[in-house]
Predict the structure.
Amino acid sequence: MAEQNKGLRLFNTLTGRLESFTPLDANGERVNMYVCGPTVYDDAHLGHARCYITWDVLFRFLQFSGYKVRYVRNVTDVDDKILNRAKERGELPAELAERNYQSFTEDMAALNVLPPTEEPRATRYIRHMLSGIEVLIAKGAAYITPDGSAYFRVAAKADYGKLKYATQNVEVLKRHLDDLKAGARVEVDEGKESPLDFALWKAVPLSDLNGWESPWPAKGDSKGWGRPGWHMECSAMNHALFGEQIDIHAGGADLIFPHHENEIAQSEAWTGKQPFSKFWLHNGFVNVSGEKMSKSLGNFSTIKKLLTRYDANTIRYFLLTNHYRMPVDFNEEALQAAENWTKRIYRLVKGVLGALKIRQADLIASVAPNARQLEGQEDPAGVFGLFQEAMLDDLNTPRALGVLNAALGNLQLSFNECPDAVETRAHFKAVATIMTQLGFDLAVLFDSSASSVPAEDVRAMYRQITEKNPEQEPGVLLEELVALRKQAKASKDWPQADAIRKHFTDIGLQILDNKDGTTTVEKDGLEIVRV
RNA sequence: GGCGGCAUGGCCAAGUGGUAAGGCAGGAGUCUGCAAAACUCUCACCCCCAGUUCGAAUCUGGGUGCCGCCUCCA
């Protein structure tokens, strides 16, 4: 039998404590994990990046730890925000949702976020939602109002509120309910038995094109018509795909209440089984210069926009330097620090890749896919052990990055001393494995081509320096220019050599003279040409 | 108003009882035609007060400040 507890500890919002993670699976092998996915009404922003990168890291680490993970991340493609946005744009809601979903998929891929095992869409589970609501009605946990809407009867769930307050103390819960009732911001809908009750199904007029048939017609109508309440889809998709219980349910901290609390109430009332999810995990928010990032403040950055300025590894490093449950502050200085780090390690890793003649395929092969493979293997400076230790401790990525930096330091030293030593390879494997497990994308280091520099810029520079009209491809021209500078250097014509350097820097290219006599042309830390 | 969280050097951030990891930035030096890289050295008594303890950034109590949730939000 497989080891039940692999030493992972996670902070469970359900209990408010750090707990040892063990899956429900009797063999302790399979893990079912559900993450609340995006509502596809707009481009994804940095907040989404933080959320999905966090759970991407968990997904990777669970697999690294030897679990077989089924990771479901839903797509909310029915929602008032989608309808409103579609209306504004004069577009069909389904088209808008599809377009944004594609955009989201691109963003996730660009951020090197692994695709989940499945990505169910809410609109494909309407029927399942309706049948779930019928079960709730039959059990007395839900009721229909005269207009044909369905509400969850919170009074029917004695332990409602357990997620947020993480306590079994009934009195505290009661007080919590009183507080909620007294709260100024609980609106009282027509027909609701209690202000705490929430919609499972919202009736809409038959004339509304964006509706589905329900079994509950409003007074005078021939058939029922409406849309799902906003918590129901997650309960339904979990029920349809996983059954009654799952191991991990995760999402942004803002979802704790009411979304997740209501999901728990629905799902547990539906199946009679609890806990609906053994672990509830929540990531912290992204602030912008100390303020909450929000549309109303206009201070949010879309992933697409961010990626024009910073590469994916920089964004990931920036996010992972903060523990996932803490708020992270987005500001230029922090991003700049992350970018400097990224550039530094690019230089090192590129140098190693070149010296050891490691190709992309070799790189993948040199990354250990799971911790088990590392057992009994050489662990240079104990970094694998330290890395795992950090990650097992509630995904302590800041600490894990500290370990990575130590591994990078070891690699640098070994590389300086003897690039081709066995030791260097071992250190490199440690670095490559840790980086890959944290979701850094090393493939970008192989993506060197002159095409990333506008051909016109290169031709213009060539014209300035040689006063000749160029015809060749940028790559060839760059090589010629490097050769020209090399000649100038050889004849100690320093002004000319420096002038050429300046021309390169003017169009955003860096010239680096290497120890071995070669010269590298880089753009943003990435090699373009090496002569 | 209710509840939760956080407070460590210029910036970010580990560290939960024994005298402060790491990254970025900065300073000094080595190397170098220039530039870059690399290497060496250097840079904090942990918001305040009181308490527990031989000993606290780390535990307890009080205070101050900041943030979040309670409303769509990742």
Notes: Chain A has three domains: 9-292, 310-446, 450-530. Chain A has 19 helices and 17 strands. Confidence is low (pLDDT under 50) at residues 166-173, 182-187 of chain A.
